[in-house]
């Protein structure tokens, strides 16, 4: 999918919020660049429970096998979701690109200070947004949270407006879209 003059939704979510993206895909008629965060804890808890009573001689081999299986399950879930969007027959869905960001280190005691005291560092929203933004395939992007659903004609309306009013096409102009329920 290549739409240089189009608008790409740039969004991010964790694996557990992936179902929210389907509604967005059903409404949007352009490209969507989605970054998904794969948490280390999803595998870590599984491994801790599995290896607690295992003979030390077998741990590396068994852990590697089960880690591979769990990773395969996660990827299968993502691929199944993507196939449903790209090849589903429920209408003209968006073109969906998925990018993965893996957590490589997690220290549950990691905190930063702000005016109200320590704040736990947890979800890398900026890194995810920047990853999705890096792979947007159009000149225009629409930064959107995973749980927001654009109106079904928004893509066409904004493109039409940009074509009719070329003075709006400037790197110094941003549009703010209000959200409502």
Question: What can you see in these coordinates?
Answer:
Keywords: Glycoprotein, Glycosyltransferase, Membrane, Signal-anchor, Transferase, Transmembrane, Transmembrane helix. It is found in: Membrane. The chain is an alpha/beta fold and 181 residues long. It has a domain at 7-38 and 86-168. The protein contains 5 helices and 6 strands; from the N terminus they run βαβααβββαβα. The chain has helices at 19-27, 40-51, 59-87, 125-134, 154-164; strands at 7-14, 31-38, 95-102, 111-114, 117-120, 140-143. A hairpin with a 2-residue loop joins β4 and β5. α2 packs antiparallel against α3. The radius of gyration is 20 Å and the shape is globular. It starts with 6 loop residues before the first strand and ends in a 17-residue tail after the last helix.
Average pLDDT metric: 77
Low-confidence stretches: none
The oligomerization state is single chain
Main sheet strand line-up:
3-2-1-6
Biggest β-sheet strands, sense, barrel: 4 strands, parallel
Strand content: 15-25%
The SSE string, one letter per element, is: EHEHHEEEHEH
Enumerate how many helices there are, as a single number. Answer: 5
Terminus-to-terminus distance:
31 Å
Gross morphology: globular
Could you tell me the number of beta strands? 6
Helical content stands at 25-40%
Question: What is Rg?
Answer: 20 Å
Structural class: alpha/beta
GO molecular function, one term: glucuronosyltransferase activity
Subcellular location: Membrane
Keywords: Glycoprotein, Glycosyltransferase, Membrane, Signal-anchor, Transferase, Transmembrane, Transmembrane helix
Membrane topology: Single-pass type II membrane protein
């Amino acid at each position: 999918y290549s739409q240089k003059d189009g608008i790409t939704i740039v969004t991010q979510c964790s694996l557990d919020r992936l179902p929210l993206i389907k509604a967005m895909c059903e409404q949007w008629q352009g490209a969507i660049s989605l970054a998904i965060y794969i948490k280390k804890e999803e595998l870590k808890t599984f491994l801790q429970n599995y290896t607690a009573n295992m003979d030390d001689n077998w741990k590396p081999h068994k852990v590697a096998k089960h880690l591979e299986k769990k990773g395969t399950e996660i990827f299968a879930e993502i691929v199944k979701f993507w196939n449903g969007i790209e090849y589903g027959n429920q209408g003209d869905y968006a073109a969906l690109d998925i990018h993965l960001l893996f957590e490589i280190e997690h220290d549950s005691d990691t905190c930063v200070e702000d005016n109200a005291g320590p704040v736990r560092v947890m979800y890398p929203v900026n890194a995810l947004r920047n990853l999705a933004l890096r792979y947007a395939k159009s000149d225009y992007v629409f930064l959107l949270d995973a749980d927001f659903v654009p109106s079904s004609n928004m893509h066409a309306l904004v493109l039409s407006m940009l074509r009719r009013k070329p003075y709006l096409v400037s790197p110094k102009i941003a549009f703010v879209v209000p959200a409502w329920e």
